[in-house]
Give the backbone structure.
Amino acid sequence: MRSNRLLFLLPLLTLLVMAGFFGWSLLSGRDPASIGSVMVGRPAPALAAPALRAGDPALTDSLIRSGKPVLLNFFASWCAPCLSEHPLLTRLAERDGVTVIGIAWKDKPDAARAWLKKLGDPFKYAGFDLEGKIALDWGLSGVPETYLIDAQGVVRLHFRGPLTERDVSDRILPLLKAGS
């Protein structure tokens, strides 16, 4: 009789332990972005993407191995956080002279072009990755994601989510100035 009660309580105890673990995980204050990226400190993956804008050349490795640092940004016209970081990318390109390369991820090229026409186009070079194959090589988890690639073609920073003023002032610009 006593063993039947224990068998009855075992699933309930298991559920309580699991609920406690999940509750602790949610409330522990850990930031998923703090996981880091396996890309940082390694040579940038190959880059081969069709041009987003008519008449522009396709994106190739030579753009990220040009001897100058670049910022590579994956974006999409349907992405709300991409909209929030767009002014920062524009400012980096226009005011700070940063070479910004954009790749429209899983977005129709016509929609991405219209979005850039409406908001302004901060990208010196732009391509698209309709099927998401390029993003796999870069370890993309969603959009927006941005990579700072140094003059030697090594990924120095990786940002998941929209860039912030603090990212730009505390991390991106100091590295760009040091690399100039």
The chain has two domains: 1-30, 34-179.
